[in-house]
Amino acid sequence: MQIDFYILAEHSQRDINRMVCQLCEKAIAQTMQTIIYTKSMVQAQQLDDLLWNFKIDSFLAHSNEFDLHTHDDHKIDKAYSYPIIIYSNMTDNTIPKSYPFLINLSHEIPEYFQDFTRMAELVSVNLEEKQAARKRYRIYLNAGHQLTKYDL
Description:
The chain is an alpha/beta fold and 152 residues long. Helices cover 36% and strands 21% of the residues. It has one domain (2-151): 3-Layer(aba) Sandwich (Rossmann fold). The protein has helices spanning 13-29, 41-53, 65-68, 75-79, 127-142, and strands spanning 2-7, 34-37, 63-64, 84-87, 101-104, 118-123, 146-151. It has five helices and seven strands, in the order E-H-E-H-E-H-H-E-E-E-H-E. 29% of the residues are buried.
């Protein structure tokens, strides 16, 4: 698995969320369906709003775990029609298995990250977040994943 670490020069949540939108835009251009795993429901809602308004002349079509649970009998079928899905809580029965790209915004290693072929980790300048990211980096490296670091 390819895991890319993006080290952001700014700490603002807005900068992190805008970077997520840029990654999603690239993924859509490559027809790569994307899961965004957030650290909180608040962040999930912020991203939900931003993806609809990322650019003045366009939006990034997406859904979130709450919309998908509205009609439980169709949640998996509904998921496959969206190029991007936002989760603040990932469980095995809610993740579409065919989505290849995971953007991890949480401070933990997602339980089902091996189900993806590519993952992005966004890291701010916050010292605690950097330390948590370094720990995840070592775990991924020791597990034999291909790692790339980008200083932005």
